[in-house]
Structure formats: structure tokens, C-alpha cells
Specification:
- The chain has 5 helices and 8 strands; from the N terminus they run ααααββαββββββ.
- By secondary structure, the chain is an alpha+beta fold.
- The chain has a 4-stranded antiparallel β-sheet, with no helix packed on it.
- A hairpin with a 2-residue loop joins strand 1 and strand 2.
- The longest helix has 19 residues.
- The protein is globular.
Length: 196
């Protein structure tokens, strides 16, 4: 019934709790919050939910100060290992595990036909994708000042904006903007590089 919809995020979250040893490393509420993001992203991956809605959910969770990216946990495991934890879920019934997924914000539903192999693959992809997003790296060596633009602006997923200013002496200033807040980092040298 409708009460089952309250489990949104719990199936993913419980697997994350198990993988982190049910410790202070990941509290239950944090696990469920990240599980909600994963449920939204999985729903978007399968075409059930617009990707913009999944991104909106992830931003909201992050804005609340809760984990919203799988890579933030620093897990050293495969999607298959996380999916294996799910097989011990108390909601498991006759070899199938119901997942609470989303068709829209506020439109959760119970899906009893989710493939665990697909979940494992999704979790691998989610981990790789968030790791890649954290590593936007800029490296500069000796440059021809005429050939390189002084400012580069990039719009990234999740409302993140990146501005790179290149100045005299290879000063590289990164301005990372999310919403109304801006963070500025600078480094001077023969090679300058920053990873986000």
C-alpha cells in the first residue's frame, strides 16, 4: 500500500549502511538521503523520471548538508557488492526486491520487477560518474599568451559553474559557483592544477 512508499531511499540506503559497517561513518538518515538521490537517479536512468528532476532532488539533499554523491563515501567496492547487501533486505519476497522509484517529484511508486544486475551496473556507473565529476582538472604549463583565452567559463551538471582566469605568471584562479555562493582558489607556478 501507500505506506510502502515511505521506504523511498531505504533499499539503497540500507546497502550503503551495511557496506560502511553500520557505523558513524554513515548515519541512517544520511544513508536514506543518499538512497533517495540514488532512487531518483536510477528512475531517471530508466526513463521514468526527467533527469532535471533527479538533479533537483540531488541538489536539494546536498543543500540540506546531506551526502548526495556515492563517491563522497569513499567506498572501495563494486555495485555487485552493494546489490548483494540488498538481497538481505527484509522486504525481499519470493526472490524479488521491491524498489520505491519515482515518476516525478512527489510521485513515488513501488516497482517489483527491478533487475538486481541492472542495479549493480547502475551503482558502478553512479560511482564512476560522481568520481569523474569530482576531478575536473586544469593543468597549465608554459603558454603562448596570445593563444590562450584569459577567461574560460564552463557550466557543469547540477547548477555548478566554473570560471578559470589565466593571468600573468600563470596565475590560475578557479571560481566555483553553486547557487549564490562562490568559492575562489588560486595558484601560481610553472604548472598549476586543481581538482574539484
Amino acid at each position: 500500500g501507500k505506506r510502502a512508499l515511505l521506504n523511498l531511499g531505504h533499499t539503497f540506503g540500507h546497502a550503503l549502511e551495511a557496506q560502511t559497517g553500520y557505523s558513524d561513518r554513515l548515519l541512517h538518515g544520511e544513508a536514506v538521503a543518499l538512497g533517495m538521490v540514488l532512487a531518483a537517479r536510477y528512475s531517471a536512468r530508466t526513463g521514468l523520471l526527467p533527469r532535471a528532476s533527479a538533479n533537483h532532488a540531488a541538489r536539494h539533499i546536498a543543500d540540506m548538508g546531506l551526502p548526495s554523491q556515492l563517491s563522497a563515501l569513499g567506498l572501495n567496492c563494486t555495485g555487485e557488492a552493494l546489490a548483494a547487501h540488498m538481497l538481505h533486505d527484509k522486504k525481499m519476497d519470493a526472490g524479488t526486491l521491491p524498489f520505491v522509484l519515482m515518476k516525478g517529484i512527489g510521485q513515488a511508486y513501488l516497482d517489483r520487477e527491478v533487475s538486481m544486475d541492472d542495479i549493480a551496473q547502475f551503482l558502478d556507473e553512479a560511482h564512476e560518474d560522481t568520481e569523474a565529476r569530482r576531478r575536473y582538472v586544469l593543468q597549465l604549463g608554459p603558454i603562448d599568451e596570445e593563444a590562450v583565452p584569459r577567461r574560460i567559463d564552463l557550466a557543469l551538471d547540477g547548477g555548478l559553474r566554473l570560471r578559470v582566469d589565466v593571468g600573468v605568471g600563470l596565475l590560475v584562479v578557479l571560481r566555483v559557483r553553486r547557487g549564490g555562493e562562490e568559492e575562489e582558489r588560486g595558484e601560481r607556478g610553472e604548472e598549476a592544477g586543481h581538482g574539484l
